[in-house]
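Fold this sequence, please.
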Amino acid sequence: MPNPSLSTHLVFCLISDERVFAAKSPILFNRVMPAAGIKATYVPFRVAASYLGEAIRALKVLNIAGANITVPYKEAVIPYMEALSESANIIGAVNTVVISRDEAKGYNTNAIGIMDALEEVGFDPAGKNVLILGAGGAAKAVAFVLKWLKAKKIFIAGRNEAKTRNLAARVGGTPLGFEDLTGHTHPLGAHLIVNATTISTATESAEMAQTAKALELEGCDLIYDLNYGRERNMWESLAGSHHTQFMDGLTTLVHQARNTLSLWTGIDVSPDHFKKALTG
């Protein structure tokens, strides 16, 4: 594991597609690390899917100490890891890579970030019904966290039927299609609704906007959108129109970034420092 007390200037990065330049992680880490006395730089890399393996191998060649992996590569990156943490192996998704002794090891700090974010807003999933929208890497982290926290029923709605059924089976949940959520044909009584898709605005998907409007929100205590930085966020508007608590992905980002930095450097930085970095 890199030792930031050394004079070496460390380099970390974020790997994604064209969405990498909209991420707040570079700003966040480049503010927090110097303030914590860590000599390091964090850079975004846009990588085409066909070059993902080459990008991971290049981390070692370029002496990059660690990387974050975000959509759409959290699952696709797994074959290029020499080792996986227990949580990454169980969840089946990686968002943090540590390079040590020429070995790339994949971790999942999304899960603990989600857990810490739920705790921060005072939501305890134990004995509650939850609805997760999406069945990709982010949804996997959410599903396993909610199972760990003893949610009563976990409903998973996704476009890809095979992925949705597979994830639901792994956590003892119920698979649904988005069509099951319209017209109140499938009353779920969800106390928590989590958007783990990449869609947060009507302009991104009119179909998803219609699905959101059709959701039964009676008894819902929290709407949780894993995305952040979206103007006219339809999940936030939905929560507001039903007087339901809303949380976006910035809180999760703070907590997962804290755990990622600890993996990379061995230094634990307070969440307050990350929050301050986000607000400027």
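Residues 27 and 230 are 17 Å apart (CA to CA). Residues 112-247 form a domain with the Rossmann fold fold (CATH 3.40.50.720).
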